[in-house]
Amino acid sequence: MATILEFIIRTNAEQFNLLYPKLRFFALDRSRGHDPLYGEQPKARFRDPVFVPTYVQIRPEEKMLKRFGIETEQEAICVWSCRLLNDIGIDPVTGDRVEYYGISYEVLTVKLTDAMLNTQVPINKLATLKQVAVR
């Protein structure tokens, strides 16, 4: 049973390496100082980018009338191989960033998916993304 599961996990990681583009992933740096009053970081700081094979599915762009005119927003879903994430040494969480064709997306939610053969061993991580304006 373990041999079959290992084969599936390894094949999945190879599929991600061969088929999907390597996107720049920016992990939020949580080790920097905090604001003494609120206990929060005053400005989001990110670590150096890491290239991770990622499957991305872009949702249709939404145009919304806001206070200062029409603004467009775009959301996406992305999938990473758990094996590749472990090999690279990153664990995506809320607040991290992914760059896809020059557009930055913030990670909103992350969950483990695709447990195989009723083993409860996750194969992939699924994340929802929202486009952010980089200033």
Notes on the structure:
The protein is an alpha+beta fold and 135 residues long. Helix content is 19%, strand content 39%. It has two helices and nine strands; from the N terminus they run αββββββαβββ. The chain has a seven-stranded antiparallel β-sheet. A two-stranded antiparallel sheet has the order 4-5. The longest helix has 18 residues, at 2-19. It is globular and about 55 Å long.
Notable traits:
135 residues, seven-stranded antiparallel β-sheet, 2 helices, 39% strand
Biggest sheet character? 7 strands, antiparallel
* Spatial gap, N to C terminus: 50 Å
Average residue pLDDT: 84
Query: What is the radius of gyration computed over CA atoms, rounded to a whole number of angstroms?
Result: 17 Å
The strand count comes to 9
List low-confidence stretches. Answer: none
Short description:
With 135 residues, the protein is of the alpha+beta class. The protein has two helices and nine strands, in the order αββββββαβββ.
What order do the helices and strands come in, and which of them pair?
Layout: H1 2-19, E1 22-26, E2 50-53, E3 55-58, E4 62-66, E5 69-73, E6 75-81, H2 82-88, E7 97-100, E8 103-113, E9 124-131
Antiparallel strand pairs: 1-2, 1-7, 3-6, 4-5, 6-9, 7-8, 8-9
